[in-house]
Amino acid sequence: MDSVLAVLLWRDGAEHGAAGRKGRTDPVREMIPLEEARALVCGAVEKLPVETVELLDAVGRVVAADQTSDIDVAPFAHSAMDGFALRAAEIAEATEEAPATLRVIAEIGAGDVFEGTIDDGECVRIMTGACLPADADAVVKYEIVGVVEGDGKPGSVVSFAAPTKVGSNIRAAGEEAHAGDVVVEAGDVLTAAGVGFLAGCGVLEVPVYRRPRVAVIATGSELVPPSEVPGPGKIRNSNSYAMAACAREAGAEAVMLPIVQDTFEALRDAVAAAAREYDLVVTTGGAANGDFDFIKPVVAELGELMMTTVNIRPGKAQTFGMVEGTPVFGLPGNPAAAYVGFQLLIRPALRTMQGYRFMDHPVVKARLTADEKNRDPRRIYLRANLTRTAEGYEVTPAKNQSSGLFGPIQKTNCLAVMPEGTAPQPAGSIVDCLLLDIPEEVVL
């Protein structure tokens, strides 16, 4: 079918309440609120199947089943520092004026076990991590023990100028976990510390939700690969790289597919093929209503078109639908608009597919350092720099807010939010700022 005819047919169907050429009778609403858009998107995707990966490969991922320890952790009581193991009662009366003295009868290094007995008037030199002798109930750190005879090693006499408590400087057996205890729960995001914890519990493989495989497709007859020097009328394809990077930051595996020319047939074939092979498809460009904007009629032709515009700026044109059970997003071609759309809509979808519990970027309130004159019925996301002062957070929007630029995003660290219908905001106004480089799990 001719490209222009396909678009005209789709537009005619949409105007008459059929959101595509499959005869739907529920029209796709124009300009829906962001919260509704996110609920729609996240409600349309599901957690991916579980896979078992090696422990180190599970870091940062969502654990899909409770993990238990096969032993007590620690498996034995041990010293928390270098010192002398003894019975606390032996030095209960010790003072600086009348120190208690004990004879050192042995030395225990990490990995060694002392199987002898500690009699009255005796102690054992012990190293950090070494197994506590059965007769000892306290450890006194090395630095506060005086040496009366010898060098502090076996055969020496050492002195104690103060009493100590039972259990001091001892890490008890099972302090972290007992055999059979759940040590990492299903739904937890495994941290680097968690990897160490599981290793100590004997867990070397972890069930996690599979990473989504994301196809990234840039559309536009003007695009050339970044390896080429653009000729007249051409520009380099930077969107594919940025969106693939965003997908990787969200935990997904991203594949950049070939550039698609501005025809209905080319985009239809590319989207259909990608939807069969990947878990999620992202296109950039062709999301508006121009003569060469085809993503909306393509999704309507191939599946179910569920969303076309969202009440945000930049990034009003946000296409979303399902093709053969695969979520398909059509982002704008303008870099900043595509980036904002990805962060606000696609990233939550990818996190949902991986089993994450938290979807919202951390938000702080900050004081505008300059007048913000923009006025728009849409919710505006300004690329901005957040700084912390003695009086609190301050935010300075970038001077250039063009939706066609990646540079201001690279040089800023947040999105300052101007609510829908907001009048111009003078310097000193308090606004919300989305922190895009901090995990959603962080509580501020």
UniProtKB/TrEMBL annotation:
Domain MoaB/Mog: 215-352
Catalytic activity annotation: adenylyl-molybdopterin + molybdate = Mo-molybdopterin + AMP + H(+)
Keywords: Magnesium, Metal-binding, Molybdenum, Molybdenum cofactor biosynthesis, Transferase
Signal peptide: none
SUPFAM superfamilies named in the record: MoeA C-terminal domain-like (SSF63867), MoeA N-terminal region -like (SSF63882), Molybdenum cofactor biosynthesis proteins (SSF53218)
Membrane-spanning ranges: none
Pathway where this protein functions: Cofactor biosynthesis; molybdopterin biosynthesis
InterPro entries according to UniProt: MoaB/Mog-like_dom_sf, MoaB/Mog_dom, MoeA-like, MoeA_C_domain_IV, MoeA_C_domain_IV_sf, MoeA_linker/N, MoeA_linker/N_sf
Enzyme Commission number, as recorded: 2.10.1.1
Enzyme class at the top of the EC tree: transferase
Gene3D superfamilies given in the database record: MoaB/Mog-like domain (3.40.980.10), MoeA, C-terminal, domain IV (2.40.340.10), Molybdopterin biosynthesis moea protein, domain 2 (3.90.105.10), Molybdopterin biosynthesis moea protein, domain 3 (2.170.190.11)
Coiled-coil stretches noted in the UniProt entry, renumbered to this chain: none
Family per similarity comment: Belongs to the MoeA family.
Protein name per the record: Molybdopterin molybdenumtransferase
Species whose genome carries this gene: Adlercreutzia hattorii
